[in-house]
Amino acid sequence: MEIREAAARDWPAIYPFWSRIVEAGETYVYPLGLGSDEARALWMEQPPGRTVVAVDGDDVLGSAKMGPNRPGRGAHIATASFMVDPERHGRGVGRALGEHVLGWARAEGYHGIQFNAVVETNTAAVHLWQALGFEIMTTIPEAFDSASHGLVGLHVMYQKIRSDR
Questions:
Q1: Which range marks the domain in which residue 78 is found?
Q2: Which of 21, 81, 100, 146 is 20 to 30 A from residue 93's alpha carbon, by CA?
Q3: Mean pLDDT of 72-99
Protein backbone atom coordinates (compact mmCIF):
# COMPACT_ATOMS: atom_id res chain seq x y z
CA MET A 1 0.00 0.00 0.00
CA GLU A 2 1.20 3.47 -0.89
CA ILE A 3 -0.14 6.79 0.37
CA ARG A 4 0.21 9.67 -2.04
CA GLU A 5 -1.24 13.07 -2.84
CA ALA A 6 -4.71 12.74 -4.35
CA ALA A 7 -5.01 13.90 -7.95
CA ALA A 8 -8.07 14.89 -9.98
CA ARG A 9 -7.89 11.46 -11.65
CA ASP A 10 -8.51 9.81 -8.26
CA TRP A 11 -11.88 11.44 -7.62
CA PRO A 12 -13.90 8.97 -9.76
CA ALA A 13 -12.55 6.19 -7.52
CA ILE A 14 -13.08 8.11 -4.26
CA TYR A 15 -16.61 9.37 -4.90
CA PRO A 16 -18.40 5.97 -4.94
CA PHE A 17 -17.19 5.02 -1.45
CA TRP A 18 -17.45 8.62 -0.22
CA SER A 19 -21.10 8.64 -1.27
CA ARG A 20 -21.77 5.16 0.14
CA ILE A 21 -20.31 6.13 3.53
CA VAL A 22 -22.17 9.44 3.73
CA GLU A 23 -25.47 7.93 2.59
CA ALA A 24 -25.16 5.18 5.24
CA GLY A 25 -25.69 7.92 7.83
CA GLU A 26 -23.43 6.49 10.53
CA THR A 27 -20.21 8.51 10.53
CA TYR A 28 -20.35 11.85 8.71
CA VAL A 29 -22.46 14.98 9.02
CA TYR A 30 -22.29 15.81 5.32
CA PRO A 31 -25.66 16.42 3.66
CA LEU A 32 -27.24 13.42 1.97
CA GLY A 33 -27.67 13.24 -1.78
CA LEU A 34 -24.65 15.29 -2.82
CA GLY A 35 -23.53 14.94 -6.40
CA SER A 36 -19.94 14.33 -7.39
CA ASP A 37 -19.02 17.99 -7.90
CA GLU A 38 -20.51 19.07 -4.55
CA ALA A 39 -18.79 16.21 -2.73
CA ARG A 40 -15.47 16.90 -4.43
CA ALA A 41 -15.59 20.51 -3.20
CA LEU A 42 -15.98 19.23 0.38
CA TRP A 43 -13.31 16.49 0.23
CA MET A 44 -10.52 17.62 -2.09
CA GLU A 45 -8.66 20.17 0.06
CA GLN A 46 -6.92 23.23 -1.27
CA PRO A 47 -3.65 24.49 0.29
CA PRO A 48 -2.76 24.77 3.06
CA GLY A 49 -4.87 21.62 3.31
CA ARG A 50 -4.08 18.38 1.57
CA THR A 51 -5.94 15.27 0.41
CA VAL A 52 -4.25 11.89 0.03
CA VAL A 53 -5.23 8.45 -1.19
CA ALA A 54 -4.11 5.02 -0.03
CA VAL A 55 -3.58 2.91 -3.13
CA ASP A 56 -2.63 -0.62 -4.04
CA GLY A 57 -1.43 -0.23 -7.62
CA ASP A 58 -4.26 1.63 -9.36
CA ASP A 59 -6.84 0.59 -6.74
CA VAL A 60 -7.87 3.42 -4.37
CA LEU A 61 -8.46 1.87 -0.93
CA GLY A 62 -9.21 5.00 1.07
CA SER A 63 -8.59 8.71 1.42
CA ALA A 64 -7.86 11.34 4.04
CA LYS A 65 -8.01 15.11 4.04
CA MET A 66 -6.10 17.32 6.42
CA GLY A 67 -5.29 20.91 7.18
CA PRO A 68 -5.56 23.57 9.86
CA ASN A 69 -8.51 23.06 12.20
CA ARG A 70 -9.31 26.79 12.29
CA PRO A 71 -7.88 29.84 10.52
CA GLY A 72 -5.80 32.55 12.10
CA ARG A 73 -4.91 32.06 15.73
CA GLY A 74 -6.24 28.49 15.65
CA ALA A 75 -4.16 27.41 12.66
CA HIS A 76 -1.45 25.77 14.81
CA ILE A 77 -3.85 22.84 15.43
CA ALA A 78 -4.46 20.43 12.55
CA THR A 79 -7.55 18.39 11.77
CA ALA A 80 -8.28 15.51 9.44
CA SER A 81 -11.06 13.31 8.08
CA PHE A 82 -10.78 9.76 6.82
CA MET A 83 -12.75 7.41 4.60
CA VAL A 84 -11.88 3.82 3.81
CA ASP A 85 -13.74 1.98 1.08
CA PRO A 86 -16.05 -0.40 2.99
CA GLU A 87 -14.92 -3.17 0.62
CA ARG A 88 -11.36 -2.65 1.93
CA HIS A 89 -11.94 -2.69 5.70
CA GLY A 90 -9.61 -4.84 7.76
CA ARG A 91 -6.51 -4.24 5.63
CA GLY A 92 -4.92 -1.56 7.84
CA VAL A 93 -5.87 1.28 5.50
CA GLY A 94 -7.32 3.49 8.25
CA ARG A 95 -4.27 2.99 10.47
CA ALA A 96 -1.89 3.75 7.59
CA LEU A 97 -3.82 6.93 6.74
CA GLY A 98 -3.89 7.95 10.43
CA GLU A 99 -0.14 7.43 10.79
CA HIS A 100 0.43 9.36 7.57
CA VAL A 101 -1.62 12.32 8.84
CA LEU A 102 0.23 12.35 12.17
CA GLY A 103 3.57 12.36 10.33
CA TRP A 104 2.38 15.14 8.04
CA ALA A 105 1.18 17.26 10.99
CA ARG A 106 4.52 16.83 12.78
CA ALA A 107 6.49 17.68 9.62
CA GLU A 108 4.33 20.77 9.01
CA GLY A 109 4.97 22.03 12.55
CA TYR A 110 1.46 21.72 13.98
CA HIS A 111 1.23 21.82 17.77
CA GLY A 112 -1.54 19.21 17.93
CA ILE A 113 -4.30 17.57 15.97
CA GLN A 114 -8.00 17.71 16.81
CA PHE A 115 -10.84 15.62 15.46
CA ASN A 116 -14.00 17.69 15.91
CA ALA A 117 -16.69 15.07 15.40
CA VAL A 118 -15.97 11.36 15.90
CA VAL A 119 -19.31 9.57 16.23
CA GLU A 120 -19.28 7.66 19.51
CA THR A 121 -20.94 4.60 17.95
CA ASN A 122 -18.14 4.40 15.35
CA THR A 123 -16.24 2.18 17.76
CA ALA A 124 -13.65 1.01 15.22
CA ALA A 125 -12.59 4.62 14.58
CA VAL A 126 -12.64 5.55 18.28
CA HIS A 127 -10.48 2.51 19.10
CA LEU A 128 -8.05 3.27 16.25
CA TRP A 129 -7.61 6.91 17.21
CA GLN A 130 -7.06 5.98 20.85
CA ALA A 131 -4.50 3.35 19.77
CA LEU A 132 -2.69 6.09 17.82
CA GLY A 133 -2.54 8.32 20.92
CA PHE A 134 -5.68 10.45 20.70
CA GLU A 135 -7.73 11.22 23.81
CA ILE A 136 -11.44 11.91 24.06
CA MET A 137 -11.54 15.45 25.39
CA THR A 138 -15.33 15.69 25.59
CA THR A 139 -18.46 14.20 24.11
CA ILE A 140 -21.30 16.37 22.88
CA PRO A 141 -24.42 14.36 23.74
CA GLU A 142 -26.99 13.66 21.04
CA ALA A 143 -25.06 15.79 18.51
CA PHE A 144 -25.26 13.23 15.68
CA ASP A 145 -28.41 11.69 14.23
CA SER A 146 -27.29 8.15 13.40
CA ALA A 147 -29.40 6.33 10.84
CA SER A 148 -29.45 3.18 12.99
CA HIS A 149 -28.88 4.39 16.57
CA GLY A 150 -30.80 7.67 16.65
CA LEU A 151 -29.24 10.57 18.53
CA VAL A 152 -25.71 9.73 19.72
CA GLY A 153 -22.74 11.70 20.94
CA LEU A 154 -19.87 13.22 19.00
CA HIS A 155 -16.41 12.93 20.54
CA VAL A 156 -13.87 15.72 20.28
CA MET A 157 -10.52 13.91 20.20
CA TYR A 158 -7.05 15.45 20.51
CA GLN A 159 -3.39 14.58 20.41
CA LYS A 160 -0.59 16.98 21.28
CA ILE A 161 2.26 16.43 18.84
CA ARG A 162 4.74 19.19 19.81
CA SER A 163 5.92 20.05 23.28
CA ASP A 164 8.18 23.01 22.50
CA ARG A 165 5.48 25.66 22.96
A1: 2-160
A2: 146
A3: 96
